[in-house]
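Good day; I would like, with your permission, to put a structural problem before you. I would ask you to consider whether the tokens describe a fold that such a sequence might reasonably adopt. The full record is reproduced below for your convenience:
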Amino acid sequence: MCGIVGYTGSEQATPILMRGLSRLEYRGYDSAGIAVYNGSELVVKKAKGKLSELAGRIEAAPVAGCVGIGHTRWATHGEPSDINSHPHTDGDGAIAIVHNGIIENYQELKEALIARGCVFRSETDTEVVPHLIRTYYTGSMLETLIRVLPMLQGSFALAIASKDDPDTLYCTRKDSPLVLGKTDHGSLIASDIPALLEYTRDVYLLDDFDIARVRPEGISFYDCLGNEKTKEAMHVDWDVKAAEKGGYAHFMLKEIHEEPAAIHNTLAPLIEIGRANKLRFRKDAMPINEEDANAIKNIIISACGTSYHVGMVSRFIFEKLAGIPTQVEIASEFRYRDPIIQDNSLFIVISQSGETADTIAALREAKNCGVKTLAITNVVGSTVAREADYVIYTWAGPEIAVASTKAFVSQQMVAYALAADLAVKRGKMTEDELADYLHEMDQLSAKAQILVDSWEIQAHAANHFRSIRNSFYIGRHLDAISCMEAALKLKEISYVQTEAYPAGELKHGTLSLVEDGTLVCAIATQTDLIDKMISNIKEVKVRGGYVIAFVKESETRIESEVDEVWRIPECPDIFTPILVAIPGQLFGYYMALERGTDIDQPRNLAKSVTVE
């Protein structure tokens, strides 16, 4: 959630820290701050609100120095305020730290530190860390961290500056990401890659409990016992322009327009043209061999948010194509119900960032049970990618907006491909059937482009409905899941109370909420269920609801029953969730635009949820 940056080198630190923080704004935050060593002391500047508030304070009283740390905070312990903002210091201001995550035993530590004379200024859990470091300081920050880190329970990514070692930063992590980079004028720390891309595309990833000593001339890595270790840099293919708006008003709009390319880029590395000019999977593109595929007795999918909706669609696909019983679990709930994970299960986690805390915890629970695990993620080298037995990347490029768009369609493409591969290897799909299936998948990019180019339809509707307070999405089968994703997009960025219901459940209570003018979006793309959807639409219309229907181009039965029709290109029913997602996203975007909300950084939300 929160953003961390750090710099030490020959350049002025403040501009570098502020640029880095600006590239991490998408993560969601409510305050920001920096600490810079000015040659005699650590100068701390903090401000509640947007980064512009902090920038104004720095402009009024500039901070000079070539080493510093910065942070954007998303409040957990203590309300958003100047005092609760990071960085936090010890009592003498000799040590400054920034922190992502939650120190779960902070109250116990705080009481012990107060008993030893420490004075706390904030309500945060974070402030215990600089006091702990000062209390147990040996004169060596490395030795002190080795002693202090085992005292911390919970999750953390820490960057630390100290007057005693003024040109050196230290950082460490547990269950919260940190990346490091080297440039010709210094060394950098960040919680996510975009903050480093202006300076380098070769980055180092920290493992849990690793400690990095960051100096202008280079970076040294140590394990939890203080043994020096060697790390290889990971090269990032996308450059800084991929993480910029590129002329679009918002990152979300840019990323919607990138969806056709994301669909293509996800599928292209997996397929090739084989005999008789038919598509097939590339050799070794899919990670599960035939023997392991046939050994799978059931599949468990665990994810959060939009990725959970991908999992819900995927359940239908795995069962329909590969004949494998599949269950889908919300990652934040999975561990707390004593789950039964049978032998020969395949455990799949889905995460755009690969750093979602609850998803990582679910993955580790599965690994402890000894079953095979597979990660679907967008980020090479992320935690889930490194810890799972298998990984398939989505190759969607950076997704900056909090509301996930191209992650949904690219993750779904991976799930479609994986289901087909398992189906072939388990004898449920012939090579000819696979070729036809892959051909349909290959057409989805062009069909998505048609929908992206038709954005004015959703923009017009948003202008008409901008004042509504609530709305509903209804659908059946796969459409019911598409409703969940479309409703999430509308509610999270426009703040319109939006609920998704299986259409057949309307008469079991929800219909009482429909009155004159109520907006009901009916997704009706499942061919065999159109007649039933018409019946549900009639139930809404007779009570005064305004109905927008999402249908395929060839559908004619519904048009006379609804107020408005949004059409998607023809495709097999199984693939409609990918195409339906786009008008749903566009409607959410333009509703938010009409209502004047903060589209890329909606209130109370963060991009990568790295705390449980």
Summary: The longest strand covers residues 95-103. Residues 11 and 450 are 48 Å apart (CA to CA).
